[in-house]
Amino acid sequence: MWQVLLVCLLAVSGCTGETSVAMRSAPPSLPPQWHPKQPRPADRDEKAVDAALAALDLCALLDLGVYDRRKAPGAAPVTRQARVFDGRRQCELVRDGFPIPLITVRDESPEGARLRNDGAIVDLSGGKGYQIERRARGQIVGCSVLVPVSFVRALRFELAYGSREDNAHCEIVRDFAAAGARLLPKDLVYPPGGQDSGRVGACADFVSNTDGGDCDPAVDVEVPAGNADAVLGAGARDTNVQCAVFRKAVATALGSAFEPVVTPGACWFVEPQHRLQIEVGVTALGDQPGIFGSDPNLWTDRQIITLGNKPAVVFRNLTSNEYSVYASPHGDLARRGQVRLQISAERERGIDVDGQPVFPAEAALKARAVVASVLEHYFGPGR
Fold first, then answer.
1. In sequence order, what DSSP letters do the residues of 309-355 get, joined into one string?
2. What is this structure's pTM?
3. pLDDT tens-digit map of 289-311
């Protein structure tokens, strides 16, 4: 669901929660048009990368020496077989008498580049890779390692599906990927900390299916002094202000691993493991906070509570992997202007498993604590 919500949040600030998520009403006025403030990194020369990949013998990247070290005693001989699948070249390491390949390396489709960030970063003996471990029914059943060669091109090494007693799927694939990476032209392999995408800074940890062009690391700006309207107005004009309002409270409640990034109309706090992601807002735009969470077709467990001496509504989505808090900085849920936080459980980076990720029970309490701290500090008596 978060992908649909992201569409809404990137379009406007403070969407309404009571119509279909993709059709939420627009606020009375929009903030200034958003433009990335950080310089965008440049990709490698597309034609040069295409030519280098076209010249590669993919079968040469499947090092038989790795297989010899890994094979069981008495294992049947293997051959490397080149083929084309779904229009992409690949090579398979096939054991005599077995129809399913042991290891495959393929020229990955550029369309999958935006999902590269789902993988856990691994060091392939001095080269950069993205590892995804596949699990089903509580067991490891497969693993793949992506070796990027540009922002959109990559080679994927993959172990055939199936359980193993030693659960060494990813260890084996990393061995093959590291050996294959050593055989690539040196200018194709990224170092472990290399810039292999358009994502800047902490945007590399943002769970999204974009290329990073709509994300900037937040700038630590000064929150304006004065009354609630001054803070809400500044937040509506600059998402960096929204991040600044929440920065200390998030770090206190959830830890320093969470870093703020800004997208059009929203501030997010992201962390490298992708277990949790937080969207926050402090804005005069959008619907009044009391309207959120009341449609039973979309939300459940709605309550009206008090946080920081201000009224707030809290609720969950129907799959219970997101928890939302909408508070009124004015003390009136029917009045426009909101302090909001949504925290969602995400699939852990590098893990592909069926079903929704489990939302930690303590995360809801921490979300309330964050909003209460913000309300007390920026919207308490004398503000």
1. TEEEEEEEETTSSEEEEEE-TTS-TTSS-EEEEEEEE-PPTTEEESS
2. 0.85
3. 999 999 999 999 999 999 999 99
